[in-house]
Amino acid sequence: MNAVGIDVSKEKSTATIMRPFGEMVAEPFEVSHTDAELRKLACFLENLPGETRIVMEYTGIYWQPIAKVLHDSGLFVSVVNALLIYKYGNNSIRKGKTDKLDAVKIANYCLDRWTDLERYAPADQIRQTLKICRRQYDQYIRLKVNLKNNLIALLDGTFPGLNTLFKSAPRDTDGHEKWIDFAAKFWHIECIYGSSEKAFTNQYRKWCAKAGYRFSAEKAAAIYAHAGSQVDTLPMTSAIQCLITHAVAQLNMIIETISAIQHEMLTLASQLPEYPIVMRMFGVGPVLGALAFQTEGRGGHVVGTGRSPIEIDEAHGEQGEHARSGHREHDGPSVRFSPLGNHRHPFMTAQNKPRERLQRVGLGWMICCKKVRAMLFLTRLFYPSWLQKEKRRRPMFMFCSLDKHRPSRTCRLSPRNARC
User: Fold this and answer.
1) Residues 370-379: contacts with CB under 8 Å, at least 24 apart
2) How far apart, in Å, are the Cα atoms of 125 and each of 94, 130, 201?
3) Which of 247, 258, 249 is nearest to 153 (CA)?
4) Which among 3, 61, 307, 384 could disulfide-bond with 311, CB atoms 3.0 to 4.6 Å apart, if both were Cys?
């Protein structure tokens, strides 16, 4: 048995080959991440006598070329989490850390976990592309939050409270929000309150028709009244207008990018066989449906179930059609999964049963009360001196006697007549 440990880096990696009882087949050597070097390494490992297993860490995306070439050559490749290698003891008191020492450590891990290693299986192109799109989606979401906070901070000096005037949802076509586009045109309160209400209403009507938003005379009056009640702290100059205009343009560009990524993710997810089943789950919409496929476990299983969505659907029968408006009702399987992974999203269930939740809460309270009663009993049993001190310190209450397991009914007495 040959254990190959590979410490992965960006442009090159360090590999070593070991056998049981510390036999070193090949000292640590470097391998470049080129097609010729990797194929040469695969040919060398294929010619080794005995069974050969290769172990490497998840190191960004740099491990993928090595794992792909070695796996295509028919070798056993296992990619493990770096935390497992870090916690694996190297039986040494020295704290040296080099690529060569790490390669030896990985090879020793391969020997000790020989029977528990899981073979690397490359993911299909659709799921791999969805994973990359999800990561880019998260990056752009963070940029969107930062740019939106920056725009609100600028508007607080020219038009305070502008972001709270419009409650409409983002547009489905490009993801634009009405208050952001409104800020590009009416970026200062003088742009509104500097003219009459009728003149602003006409300007607002023309802007809504040009930008593709719905016009409302009541909303125009509310905006005009809000602008008259606010106090600006930044002057109405070309420099401030340039800052706000560019902030709006950058934010809209990020929003359009996020909308395009969501559309591509939905298109890719619709090609998967379990997509119709996931979309019929309670509370799953177009955006969440595309993101839900990123939390599947090994082998396409839904997290928390150990089975694929198709198996879950077959086990529970056909699912009802969910309502496409407002509250969605669904009679499908009760599947618990976290669509947003480690992004702190609550578990979603397919059915809403308040009575069962109340029963679970009541059962929890009963268990808690039993634990408290057991603690009080142990306290009276093993700490009698503490009870005596409590009696002397608080004579207003009657305490139960130590020879009884159940406390007697307490009653309020005077300090003179207090008894145990």
Assistant:
1) 376/407, 377/405
2) 44, 8, 53
3) 247
4) 307
Q: 58, exposed or middle or buried, with CB in 10 Å at 0-12, 13-18, 19+?
A: middle
| Residue 255: closest CA among 168, 147, 175 | 175
Which 3 state secondary structure label does DSSP give 65? Answer: helix
Half-sphere exposure of 48 (CA within 13 A, CB side): 19
Sign of the C-alpha dihedral, residues 216, 220, 221, 222?
Answer: positive
Helix (H) or strand (E) holding 24: strand 23-32
Which helix or strand (DSSP H or E) is residue 93 part of?
Answer: none
- The two tokens of residue 307 are 């089975």
Give the closest residue to 55 by CA, choosing from 10, 1, 98, 119: 119
For 281, which DSSP code?
S
Check if the beta carbon of residue 296 is closer than 8 Å to that of residue 302: yes
Q: Residue 371: pLDDT above 80?
A: no
Q: What is the pLDDT of residues 211-267, one digit of tens each?
A: 999 999 999 999 999 998 989 899 999 999 999 999 999 999 999 999 999 888 888
Q: Are strands 76-80 and 12-19 parallel, antiparallel or unpaired?
A: unpaired
Please tell me which residue, 2 or 306, carries the higher pLDDT value: 2
Look at residues 131, 133, 147, 179 and name the one whose alpha carbon lies nearest to residue 254.
147
CB 47 within 8 A of CB 89: no
Task: Give me the mean pLDDT over the 325-334 stretch.
Answer: 38
Give the tokens for residue 38: 């990797």
